[in-house]
Amino acid sequence: MLGIDMGSNTLRAVLMDKNFNKLQSEEFIIAAAKNMQNDTISDEAIERIFNALKSLKEKNYDLGQAKAVATAAFRKAKNATTIMEQIEKKFQLKVQIIDAKTEARLSILGMQERLKSLKLFKKQLSYCDLGGASCEISSEQSCKSYDFGIISFYERMRFKTAKPSAYMRFFKKNPQNLKYIKDKNLKFHLSSYPMHFKQILFQALTISKHIKKEIKGNYFVLNSGVPTTLCAYKQNIKYKDYLEESVNGKILQKRDFFNFALKIWNLEQEKARIYLGENRKKYLIAGSLILFALFEKQKLIVIDDGVREGVCIAHFKNIKI
C-alpha cells in the first residue's frame, strides 16, 4: 500500500504492508505554501509537485493504486481543484484534500503505531504537528488547528530595522548583568541576539500566548520536519543521509529548539544546504522558535511517522478518511 501526504512544505510517500511495516519511504521539498499570492499555489510550487510525482513514477511506485491526501496549503488555495485535476490526468493519482481534523487523526494514527512499536505509547499523550501552513495540537479528547505553519508564519513576518538602544548597548558590553532581569521577554529584548532573530522570536511568543493556556499534559509527541531535523543535526547527520530510525523516540526539551534556531542562524549557506536541505534554513529557524514559544516543561517525544503512515494504517484498519 502506497500512502502519500502532499503537505504544505513536503510531499512524503511510504510503501507499507498490512502489518504496518515500512518497506520504502520518500520525501520531497515542494514548499506549496511558499509565495502563495492571493491564496494561489505558485507555478514554481506546482512544478516541484509534478517533479516529485514524476520521480515516484520513475522509481516504479504505482501511483494509480496509491491513497493520497493534501493538507493546509491546498485547503486554502483557490487553484487546488485545478491542480488535483491535472495530477489525476497526468499520473492517474486521485488526491483527496482533507480538513484539519482528518489531518490530525491520520497524523496521530501514524505516530501512535510507531510509539507502540517503540513501547513508548501512553494513553495520556498529546500531539503536535507543525506543518508548512498549519499547526494541529491534539489529544484523545480534542483537536485544534491553528492558522500558521513554518512557511506561512515566516512569510507573514515584517522585519524592521532599528538601532540598538542605550540599554541594549550596555547589556551587549556587560552580558553578565542580564541574569538580574527576571522578565524573560525583556531579557531577550535587551540581549545581543541578532535583531531579526529577536523579531521572529517575539512574533512566535505573540502567536503562542493564547494557545499555551490550552496546552495540557506532560508528554507531547512531535512529528514534523523541525524536530526531526533538529534530532538529526544533533547527531551530525546530513540531510541526504537522514534515517527515520535515528530520530524516532528521541526526547527533546524546550531549550533545544532555541539553541537549534540560534546555531543554524549562524550556519553558512553551504553547510545549511548539506545538513538541513535546500532552502530550509529560515523556515526551520521560524519553526524552532514557534516550538520554543509553545512549550514549557513538557517532555517532547520525536516521531518521524505522520499523515502518510496514517493513510496506510487507516486503509488497513478500514477507517474512513
Explained architecture:
There is one protein chain. By secondary structure, the protein is of the alpha/beta class. It contains 13 helices and 11 strands. Helix 4 packs across helix 13 (307-316), helix 8 crosses helix 12 and helix 10 (254-265) runs antiparallel to helix 12. The model has no long low-confidence stretch (mean pLDDT 93). It comes from Campylobacter subantarcticus LMG 24374. One of its GO terms (biological process) is regulation of transcription by RNA polymerase II. It holds the Pfam family Ppx-GppA.
Summed up:
The protein has 321 residues and is an alpha/beta fold. It is built from 13 helices and eleven strands. The protein folds into two domains: 2-97, ATPase, nucleotide binding domain (Nucleotidyltransferase, domain 5, 2-Layer Sandwich), CATH 3.30.420.40; 102-156 and 194-307, Nucleotidyltransferase, domain 5.
Shape: globular
Structural class: alpha/beta
Helix segment tally: 13
What is the CATH level 1 assignment of the largest domain?
Answer: Alpha Beta
Biggest beta sheet attributes: 6 strands, mixed
In spatial order, strands of the major sheet run: 8-7-6-9-11-10
Q: Tell me the Rg in angstroms.
A: 20 Å
Approximate strand percentage: 15-25%
Count of beta strands: 11
Distance between the termini: 15 Å
Average pLDDT: 93
